[in-house]
Amino acid sequence: MKLNRIFILFILLLLGILFYGASYLGYIQESYRKLQIQITDPSIKTVLMTEEHKDFGLRSSPGFLYSQPSLLEGRTDVVSITPWLAPIIWEGSFDSTLIDSIYKQQNITIATTVFALGKYTRFLKEFLESAEQHYFVGFRVRYYLFTDQPEEVPEIKLGEERYLTILKVPSLDRWQDISMGRMEILEKLTKSEVANEADYIFCLDVDTKFYGPWGVETLGRLVAVIHPWFYDYPRDQFTYERRPESQAFIPVGEGDYYYTAAAFGGLFKEVHELTKYCRERQSIDASKAIEALWHDESHLNKYLLYNKPSKLLSPEYLWRDISSSTRHVKVIRLSHVAKNNVEVRPNA
Amino acid sequence: MQRQNVNTFLLVVVGMSLTGAIYLGYTYTWFRCGEQRQCLKSGEQRKCSNSGLKEHQKNLYMHSPQGLLNKQPSVVGPEGIISLTPWLAPIVWEGSFDSMLLDSIYKQQNITIATTVFALGKYTQFLTAFLESAEQHYFVGFRVHYYVFTDKPEEIPLVKLDKERQVVVLKVPSSTRWQEITLRRMEMVENLIEDRLAYEADYIFCLDVDTKFYGHWGVETLGHLVGVIHPGYYETAREQFPYERRPESQAFIPSTEGDFYYGGAVIGGLVKDVQELTKTCRVQLDIDAAKSIEAAWQEESHLNKYFLYNKPSKLLSPEYLWQDFKAKTKEVKIIRFSQVIKNYAAVRPNP
């Protein structure tokens, strides 16, 4: 009896070793084959190089000084291009029929995140209904709705090829924490399997409403929106974080544009880098008991100063209020809605 | 006795399942490898998803369908020059970009720019001025590899080059027709990319040699697929562009279509994107040749057709391709690169 058992165990052990040995050899062989392919097949190098180029952000160094770019001075009534040759999207600068036709051939999906915690769920109905009317109409959109109260999410009729996923997140006491907490959630989302289900991602504030078309002219590698209150301010008056102790510090004399954190987007990889950066810097600040002046927006601005966006959206794409307008903003596409801060925020 | 049978039976079962697992392990890795190999061998990289990147993410192409009637874009608008095409490709003009900023961005990327020129027959006489002026103005401070195609390697001048820059001379057969020389350029560039440039360079520019640099030409010109607006037609209505108008030619463009008239003297972009361009043009040129059709402006006609339906991601203003015999205009405030005045009869092998 005993001998039999030992014998059986011995055989099992032997087979186990064989199994792992074979897997290991198979793995080795595969990597060897892969290596061979890399060396002998020239087409792979081309693909690699393309992917390398996908990694080429437009990074510039801190402390590097140059004249402030202007939105209003140039050769037209608005400037359509940044000094690093990224387009700035204004009404009249693009042909939506042409661009639509280009993107329609690419079968793209746009992921869209929105956070509605606490009383902010009340903004969802108008946000989603207006999005269904104006936002990437005719394209596939996946909304990712983060809330601490899934039961408060209204029933919205979505168009064809438009999907909504509700994700429950913990409640938070401070609106600043809710705002900054988005970065960590987005950092994780952009590395999750969601990245396989969409090509581009936009992260939008929920206390907004669409009034005009927001389409594929906004798509790009890394897309930022010019803040509606600061587009004609000199850089030294931007509400950057000015304390050197904060990770979000930007010295006077530096700065391109003041970007809003209420809307940003791009390729998953790029948005991941941005949100990761913000989350890391927010943590460092928190550990030193410092909170940047405009929270995640301060960190976002720092990131975008040194990692230039590949496309900028004019304040048409995130406006102050539907009832106000300036001569430069001829179309309002997405706008903050009026809200009583005291009433709707969990804290002052 | 029964106990032993059970044990043996168990042993056999376990043994078989382990063997099965090993076999599956093998076939799985083989299958994955095989699939990858097959993908690459077919040369159709676009059909394979590599590391989860979607097809279009890698492509970033902007194909537009034939017959799409969009309004002709303006270069000169009511308020002055326009910096963006209707498909949101930047149009590069003096004043629209910050050289120092762009240089600082690209300097971090350790790039190599390949530059091809064709100097056959008497065209070798243009090389000295071309190369000397390039050394003064063209991607100064960056790594540039010039590839000079010539039928007379012995006539290539020795020009002093900045460090990190080199000239590679490639011998090609002579031709008795200048049209033939110009038509074969696409094929030769396509071959060069496939043979060497895929390993050696990030960006490529294909330039005419009977030219000279007069001003800064830098990294503001880099992009996925770059075309230059022909200096003679930037204010012309699309019906009057010298496109190929015979439907029998592959380069045919109807008079209701057209964005810009692009100059064939400058083609640029990522090596992979220019490869696609040269390959397509070469194929279309061959189809025309088989029917004994030669497009109105040879490869420039085919280039224009390609750019109409495969929009460039960046356009260079006519500052980047001028003609010496033209006077400056109010829009074109600086001339960077220009075709020199030449006596056609003296330099061409045929009229």
The fraction of residues in strands of chain A falls at 15-25%
- Biggest interface in this structure? A-B, 72 and 75 residues
| Helical content band of chain B | 25-40%
Assembly type of the chains comes to: heterodimer
Question: What number is the mean pLDDT of chain A?
Answer: 84
**Strand elements of chain A, count:** 12
Rg of chain B from C-alpha positions?
26 Å
Tell me the strand order in the biggest sheet of chain B.
Answer: 3-11-9-10-7-4-5-6
Give me the secondary-structure category of chain A.
alpha/beta
Strand order of the largest sheet of chain A: 2-11-8-9-6-3-4-5
Order of helices and strands of chain B, N to C? HHEEEHEHEEHEEEEHHEEEH
Gist of the model:
Chain A has 348 residues and is α/β, with parallel strands linked by helices.
What does this structure look like?
The complex is a heterodimer of chains A (348) and B (351). Chain A has 348 residues and is of the alpha/beta class. In chain A, 35% of the residues lie in helices and 16% in strands. Chain A has helices at 2-40, 42-55, 96-104, 124-134, 175-189, 268-287, 296-306, 341-344, and strands spanning 58-59, 88-89, 109-115, 140-147, 162-168, 200-204, 208-210, 222-226, 259-267, 307-308, 311-313, 334-336. In chain A, helix 4 links the parallel strand 3 (109-115) and strand 4. In chain A, helix 6 (268-287) packs across helix 7. Chain A is globular, with a radius of gyration of 25 Å. The model of chain A is unreliable at 31-75 (pLDDT under 50). Chain B is of the alpha/beta class and 351 residues long. Chain B has helices at residues 2-41, 55-59, 99-107, 127-137, 178-200, 271-290, 299-309, 344-347; strands at residues 76-77, 80-81, 91-92, 112-118, 143-150, 165-171, 203-207, 211-213, 225-229, 262-270, 314-316, 322-323, 337-339. The N and C termini of chain B lie far apart (103 Å). Classes of the chains: A alpha/beta (348), B alpha/beta (351). The interface between A and B is large, with 72 and 75 residues.
